[in-house]
Amino acid sequence: MVFRNADLPALFHRADSLAIARQGEAVGSTRAQLVLLVVGAALAAVPWRGELGGGLEAAGVLSAAAYAGVLLLTFSTSRRKAKSQWQLNRSAADFVKSMCWRYAVHGAPFDAESPDVDRVFTTRLEEQLQELRTVGWVLESPEGSLITPQMRQLRAKSFGVRKETYVRDRLIEQRNWYRRKQEVSRVATALWSSAFALLTLVALILGVLRAFSVTENTDAAGVLSAAAASGVAWSEFRRHQPMISAHALVEEKLKALHIEMESRLTEKQWSSVVYETERIVSPQYTEWLARHGS
């Protein structure tokens, strides 16, 4: 049997799509702010002025417009709470997904011996989502059951089928996802570190030239410093470096659980191992690793 994201309830898809949209908004706004800061500094430093008449200079007007754009983007992003809504919707989507998997494959606390498992599932899901609403999550549950026919179908399968499906469609998928994220973060870290070093080196050379009175122009060094600072801010916002180690640790733990699941794991042990797997793949666990492992 195959169990994919398409088999999850409408609540997951709604929260997931909102998380993606708000992430794009938050990331795009931050990127635009940093670019505009560098553009504003560059326009203020260029020797060309471009007289517009009435004492106005084109370079100055464009530089001021760039800085004004930064302020407008800051205000707009703050008002729409794009970053917080991105994180809240991502937490909601991942929690729903995790609970659905645990229900479908008999993960704790939804094992075969659990009484009235449907009610327990719905109650626990709603309790956690209500906690998210208290901190600003605004999505209401869409119409439709929280338990899809595909979830019931997988839950009714034998232990062997549930185990095979979970290992293939959940655990291995997650291992591959964390491995891909590590590679993306490594490439981004190398790129931004190289750019920062290059910009700083050029600014250093210009500073040395000024120290020896070879040149009097300091505008270029200021622009390079602004560009380097923006690069550092962007790298910190994306958190590439701490995420490398966090994703590597999660992938290593999932590898150990994969080996355990492929060994002589009994059905009695199964529910607790699934619970542990879902705990490890939760965003909260990755965030904890990123904060304390960096």
Brief write-up:
The chain has helices spanning 10-45, 58-80, 82-104, 117-134, 149-155, 159-211, 219-238, 240-262, 267-280, 283-293, and strands at residues 51-53, 56-57.
Keywords:
two-stranded antiparallel sheet; single chain; 294 residues; 2 domains; mainly alpha
Can you walk through the features of this model?
With 294 residues, this protein is mainly alpha-helical. It is 78% helix and 2% strand. It folds into 2 domains: 1-157, no CATH class; 158-294, no CATH class. The protein has helices at 10-45, 58-80, 82-104, 117-134, 149-155, 159-211, 219-238, 240-262, 267-280, 283-293, and strands at 51-53, 56-57. A two-stranded antiparallel sheet has the order 1-2. Helix 8 (240-262) packs antiparallel against helix 9 (267-280). 27% of the residues are buried.
